[in-house]
Design brief:
Layout (H helix, E strand, L loop, with lengths): L17 E6 L1 H11 L1 H17 L1 H4 L3 H18 L1 H14 L3 H8 L1 H4 L10 E5 L10 E8 L7 E8 L5 E6 L6 E4 L3 E7 L11 H8 L5 H8 L8 E7 L4 E6 L4 E5 L4 E4 L6 H4 L9 H15 L6 H8 L24 E9 L4 E6 L7 E5 L3
Parallel strand pairs: 1-4
Antiparallel strand pairs: 2-3, 2-11, 3-12, 4-5, 5-6, 6-7, 7-8, 8-9, 9-10, 12-13, 13-14
């Protein structure tokens, strides 16, 4: 389907905003909240609307969501108080209630994944499969279209952790990006049946972004008392590719032995598939996985542009790699690609679109060390 025939596809005539932050975790959060105040507030308003619209499915009010999210906070405080400080800083900088920011960052947990809203696609190729010997990683971020306007890029210099460059939106902790130690992380929602009250996945993935070694990054995905799990596609500048499939109590480590790796929103390992909740609802994830895998394996000379071409793919539209909100009605099935990015880990660059990549330009950001 040509791009001009796909409705509800927004043209952005500017790159996503870039903010530079530094200092303690609290100070960085305050800087994010202050600089992105309107985006943070709007993302909370959008979360209100989403929970209200899905009341018949979730039977959850905003007050109920606040009550639920508070149960997760002690686990995060105990293991990662510095990232809870970031959340406090975001709330302070944006001049909003801390409880509201906590709901945003525990949203998947408090809705027990009933929304099934994230349909992200991640991929990576190492130096053996690229034209210039660089290590590349790509990610399409799919979420509700109302949050597309809240996308921004953070270039951070924490006092005690590695500098990083990451994409995020609204009041969410940054986690999709890469750091100065040559470690990139791309996350995909998965749907385990063993979820529990514990450390929210966004806090876990924020911690991974501060890793200095591959083993440290993998270890942080498996932190005890985690509430559930993502798939963490972890890429190292050496060309090492790992996909860590995580649930609350189980995990499996997949390795990119042949230089390629793709992950979407279903578990690949047979043992992890045994605990997958509602696998029949994840058919489009399987279609995207096989499509991206096939396109990735068609070349041994990948470039930034070839990965960007895969990110624009419309097979099985609207539930394609480049995901579109065509109907725009059902709150439980109303999402689109709000950003797409390709990381050149060798060059320490991020090439990112604001909105659907089929219709919006990529813009280049560098990690300032």
């Amino acid at each position: 389907m040509p791009k001009n025939e796909i409705p509800n596809t927004v043209d952005h005539n500017a790159p996503p905003p870039l903010i530079e932050v530094k200092g303690t975790n609290l100070e960085m959060g305050q800087q994010i909240g202050e600089a992105m105040r309107e985006q943070v507030k709007r993302s909370i308003e959008n979360a209100h609307i989403l929970i209200d619209a899905a009341y018949n499915e979730l039977e959850l009010t905003w007050q109920g969501a606040q009550n639920q999210s508070r149960k997760y906070l002690p686990f995060a405080e105990e293991r990662y108080p510095q990232y809870v400080d970031e959340l406090r800083g975001i709330a302070q900088g944006a001049n909003i209630a801390f409880d509201d920011v906590v709901v945003l960052n525990a949203m998947e947990a408090v809705t027990t994944d009933a929304l099934h809203l994230t349909r992200c696609t991640s991929m990576a190729v190492n130096e053996t499969r690229t034209a210039d010997g660089h290590v590349l990683a790509g990610h399409n971020e799919d979420w509700i279209p109302e949050d597309e306007g809240d996308v921004f890029v953070v270039s951070a210099k924490p006092d005690k952790e590695p500098p990083y460059l990451a994409m995020t939106y609204g009041g969410l902790l940054p986690n999709v990006g890469f750091n100065a130690y040559g470690i990139a992380q791309l996350i995909n929602s998965v749907y385990p049946g063993d979820s529990r009250i514990g450390i929210p996945r966004l806090v876990v993935s924020r911690a991974v972004l501060s890793s200095r070694r591959i083993s440290g990054a993998i270890g942080r995905t498996l932190v005890p008392h985690r509430a559930a799990g993502y798939n963490h596609l972890i890429v190292h500048e050496s060309g090492e590719l790992y996909s860590i499939e995580v649930s609350a109590r189980k995990f499996e480590i997949l390795y990119g032995l042949d230089g390629y790796m793709v992950h979407t929103n279903h578990y690949l390992d047979p043992k992890m598939r045994e605990i997958e909740k509602d696998p029949e609802e994840l058919l489009s994830s399987r279609v995207r996985y096989h499509r991206a895998s096939r396109l990735l394996r068609q070349s041994e000379k990948h470039t930034i542009k070839s990965l960007q071409a895969i990110q624009k793919d419309h097979v099985n539209v609207p539930n394609s790699i480049c995901n579109h909100n065509i109907a725009g009605a059902d709150p439980l099935d109303r999402e689109k690609t709000i950003s797409a990015l390709v990381i050149d880990l060798t060059a320490r660059e991020m090439h990112i679109t604001w909105g659907n990549p089929c219709q919006n330009s990529y813009h280049t950001y560098h990690l300032a060390e």
